[in-house]
Amino acid sequence: QIRGVILHCVRPAETGGDNAFLDHEIAYIQLRDENPDFIRALMEPDAMTIPANIRNGQELRPEQTGPVFSLDRQGNLHMRYSARARNIEWKADSTTQAATKYLLGLFQQDSPYIFRHRLEAGEGVISNNALHCRTGFSHEDGSITRLLYRARYFDRVADPETGSGE
């Protein structure tokens, strides 16, 4: 499971491509405060399913079903989520559906918990798998294209106080 992420911008888009980031622990608190049943639903072992990745009739990755929120061995909160409408199947119960709708709506709010920034060349973000989204982007003449690297890690970012990523 992905716990740490680095995004690095080599070349920004000509227009657009603004990012928004929300710490998954803040999202958890906002969901819990809105309705504690949202958390219970999203911690169910069958809350979401990523369908199998099949290309040319060959299964590259099997279907993966699991909770959105879970705790790792050290007690750290982990979140596995995607706002993509395709390639995610949500549990078909009213509480899970309401929770995912509320979660998606968090990015539509003007919130002090959301960091909004357009990455410029040489800039990046290091996080413990923060929720993130971006606006659409375009290139007027098509000659220069956006280039953004994303690295995903199984370990959390180390705590500077303890040196532990656990």
Q: Strand order, biggest sheet? A: 12-1-15
Uncertain runs: none
Largest sheet: 3 strands, antiparallel
Shape: globular
Q: What fraction strand?
A: 25-35%
Q: pLDDT average, as an integer?
A: 88
Structure class: alpha+beta
Question: What is this entry, summarized?
Answer:
By secondary structure, the chain is α+β, with helices and mostly antiparallel strands.
Polypeptide structure, described:
- The structure is a single chain.
- By secondary structure, the protein is an alpha+beta fold.
- The protein has 2 domains: 1-23 and 113-166, no CATH class; 24-93, no CATH class.
- It has helices at 24-34, 36-42, 94-105; strands at 4-11, 15-16, 19-22, 48-50, 53-55, 58-61, 64-66, 69-71, 77-79, 89-90, 114-117, 124-127, 131-134, 137-138, 147-153.
- The strands form 6 sheets. The protein has a 3-stranded antiparallel sheet with strand order 12-1-15, with no helix packed on it. It has a 3-stranded antiparallel sheet with strand order 11-3-13.
- β8 (69-71) and β9 (77-79) form a beta hairpin.
- α1 packs across α2 (36-42) and α2 packs across α3 (94-105).
- It starts with a strand and ends in a 13-residue tail after the last strand.
- The model has no long low-confidence stretch (mean pLDDT 88).
- GO terms for molecular function: oxidoreductase activity.
- It comes from hydrothermal vent metagenome.
